[in-house]
Amino acid sequence: MALTVRQMLLALGMLVTGSINTLSKKAQNDCTVVGRNGTAPHEFDHPWFQTLIMFIGESMCLYALLVLRHQERRELRKQLYSIQSVDGDVDPTNQLKQPRVFQIILIIPTLCDLFGTTLAGIGLLYVTASVWQMLRGSIIVFAGILSRLFLKRKLQCYHWTGISLTMFGLVLVGLSSVLQDEEAGYSSKTVLGIVLILSSQFISASQMIIEELFLKKRGFPPLQVVGLEGSFGVVIMSAIVLPILYHIPDSSAATHRYEDSIDALYQISNSTKLLIFCLLYLCSIAFYNFFGLAVTKSLTAVHRTLIDACRTMLVWLVDLIIYYAFDKNFGEEFDVTYGILQIDGFLFLMIGTAMYNGLMPVDFIPWCRDSSQMVPVSSSIDNEDEGGDDDNEASPLLNEKEPSYT
Q1: Could you tell me which residues come within 8 angstroms of residue 46 by beta carbon, excluding any fewer than 6 positions away?
Q2: How far, in Å, CA of 368 to CA of 55, rounded?
Q3: Which of 54, 55, 169, 360 has its CA 20 to 30 A from that of 372?
């Protein structure tokens, strides 16, 4: 089925804002700025504070939701006024059904988002932006396995083949990063970064499964989901997580605290460049999460994952252009020794992702010839006779509901 113009615009918006998200976050880590109490210039090493920025960006969607609901109520008043002018009588039961904004169940994906994003942010400190983005493709592996275990989806042979190719690609990408950094003498940190990134993608895949289990039939608008997750996250980070981390000692940190949010604020105030990167990250988060959930709502969660994987090429290309054309303190250099290994790994990742989503023929694979047709994993169910429209795995994650008048 061909995509509509609206769906293509949503996909493009998700691609662009997602790329800005990755690049601006890595650029923050590359900034070296004076911190609190006149401490010596040091890198912006604050992954937990970056998670707070992410949640602030997400919470901005809640304001957009309230504006949208106000417009819906105003439209209802216009309709009621026109009916009253013609008929002279209005049914008092005519009301706009708007479910309450506060939904406590959304705190569950919020916690997954908190730990998944923070682990990925810590991993980004030890690897380049392109490697970080490529390793995020491992979500295909975790999402496929978890959907089989908890959603009881039937995975065809080409799904497992795609997962296997993706895993091989991940090995090549990780190996290229380790070998590059081994020459510089800090390969152990690179391995730690890779482990943290893979762990974050396992949590993110779990979040997708949880959202599909608990939110699919509730029909929450994307703005409500993103906005509430962001609001819950801001409260949890500000009141619980950051205060606890502030009092944990860390001799390797510039201020000898594991996460010094006050130092982060000082660094931002002392550098206009860092401030711009933070604002870009905040705004891109707000729009990226909305576009992502809107794509999932309009299409399926698999489309969202596929579009997210496609931004890897854009991130890598922009990073190379920044390094060679603008500022060597930012971006990344292409390693002529092991860069080809990273390219090979990326190609295996893309082929595995395409095969997993049924986007390429598999007749040339002997063990997949018995498959009569390619059925995307999002639409495969164990017993089609038992599932109606609400149970169809191909239905959107967040069902679209228009304002209803009764």
Answers
A1: 259, 260, 261, 263, 264, 267
A2: 43
A3: 169
Spatial distance between the Cα atoms of 268 and 191, rounded to a whole number of angstroms = 29
Distance CA(255)–CA(258), nearest Å, equals 8
The H-or-E segment that residue 157 falls in is helix 157-182
Place of tokens 């698999």: 302
Report the predicted TM-score, pTM, of the whole model to 2 decimal places: 0.79
Residue type, 392: N
Distance CA 233, CA 57 (A): 11
Give yes or no for a contact between 313 and 301, defined as CB atoms under 8 angstroms apart. no
Q: How far apart are CA 325 and CA 131, in angstroms?
A: 21
Question: Which 8-state DSSP code applies to residue 41?
Answer: P
Give residue 292's identity as a one-letter amino acid code.
G
Instruction: Round to whole Å and give the CA distance between 58 and 16.
Output: 17
For residues 365 and 57, the model is more confident at: 57
Distance between CA atoms of residues 302 and 292, nearest Å: 11
DSSP string, 176-223: HHHHHHHTTT-HHHHHHHHHHHHHHHHHHHHHHHHHHHHHTTTT--HH
E strands in 28-149: 32-33, 42-43
**Site of tokens 């490529």:** 134
Segment 270-288, tens digit of pLDDT: 999 999 999 999 999 888 8
Q: Range with the lowest mean pLDDT among 163-172, 208-217, 370-379?
A: 370-379
DSSP assignment letter at 43: E
Alpha carbons 105 and 228: distance in angstroms, whole number: 10
pLDDT of residue 185: 65
